[in-house]
DUF433 domain-containing protein
Amino acid sequence: MTVLDSSSLIASDPEIRDGKPCFVGTRICVHDLLEYLAGGMTEGALLADFPSLQPRHVRAALAYAAQRASASSDPRPR
């Protein structure tokens, strides 16, 4: 398993959901959570549907998405 963010809430494991970034200890993908939020689901409804998640998971997903967006739009060579 590879931890993908500093809060240790998101990790990628090739054995879970084909290695997609998921919340540690769950099979819930970060992408899925972000899709639900983008589709208009409220944080409260999301947390009610996924009782293993807490508000900190939503914040971690948003931070992860922001980091990815920033990295993909950075024109500086790596």
Remarks:
- The radius of gyration is 13 Å.
- The chain has one domain: 2-73.
- The beta strands are 2-3, 10-12, 22-23.
- Residues 12 and 18 are 9 Å apart (CA to CA).
